[in-house]
Structure formats: C-alpha cells, structure tokens
Amino acid sequence: MPWRIVLWALLLGVGVTQALAAERIDINRADASALQQGLTMVGPSRAAAIVEHRQQHGPFRRVEDLTQVKGIGKAIVERNRQRIMIEGGKPSMDPVPGTVPVRPVPRR
Fold first, then answer.
1. Selection from 42, 46, 86, 79 nearest residue 63 by Cα
2. pLDDT average per 10 residues of sequence, the chain (108 residues)
3. Residue 48 to residue 32: CA distance in whole angstroms
4. Distance, CA of 108 to chain centre
5. Is residue 5 classed as helix, strand or coil in its secondary structure?
6. What is the pLDDT of residue 4?
C-alpha cells in the first residue's frame, strides 16, 4: 500500500512540473488572450495594453520592461516573473534593478 502513495506523489510531482512549464508565456509573441489567461492580475485591458505597447515600442528586452505598460507595476511583474519568458524559450531570471546580486560565499 505505501508504494502506491509514493507512486501517486511522484506522478503528481511530474504533473505539477509539466503544468508549471506549460504556463510560461512569451510576452513578445503572446496575443492578448494568452496574456490574460496565463498571467496573474492581467485582465483584458492590461493584456491589450501589453500588446499595444509591444506594437508601438518593439519587443520587451527584460521582464522589468513590462512596468512601462500603463497598469502594470512592479507587484504584477514580480508575481508573474516565473510565468514569463522572453524569446528563446527560457524563463527570464533577470535581476531586479536596485537589488544587490547574490554571490556565493567562499569557503574557508
């Protein structure tokens, strides 16, 4: 009986990992509908504003560039950081401006 629980937990973990990977949105290619469905706190007007901003100013280079869109603030960007990718299929892990980068501590 315990092996069934372990198997179930493993399958659930794989499903969650796949679901999280599937939720990433390329903010330079997604249409308003995909942005609205894939990003938290982004409804129809914010999604349309993202698409409009992208059409007028070109592609986003960093996740933080989303704050240039009317209605998108730092809180929305941070809440969605793990869901966003920028061209190339990699999640954007750019450091947040104004923060100190974490560096490894040398061992003695």
1. 86
2. 69 54 83 95 96 95 95 95 79 51 62
3. 5
4. 37
5. helix
6. 74
Burial degree of 98 (CB within 10 A; 0-12, 13-18, 19+): exposed
Name the superfamily (CATH) of residues 25-92. Answer: AF1531-like domain (1.10.150.280)
DSSP state of 29: T
Tokens of 81: 């950081």
Max Cα-Cα span within the chain: 59
Coil/strand/helix, residue 71: coil
Taking the CA atoms of the chain, what radius of gyration do you get in angstroms? 18
Beta strand ranges found along 20-72 (DSSP E): 25-26
- CA 38, 43, 45, 49 torsion: positive or negative? negative
pTM as predicted = 0.63
Are the beta carbons of 96 and 102 closer than 8 angstroms? Answer: no
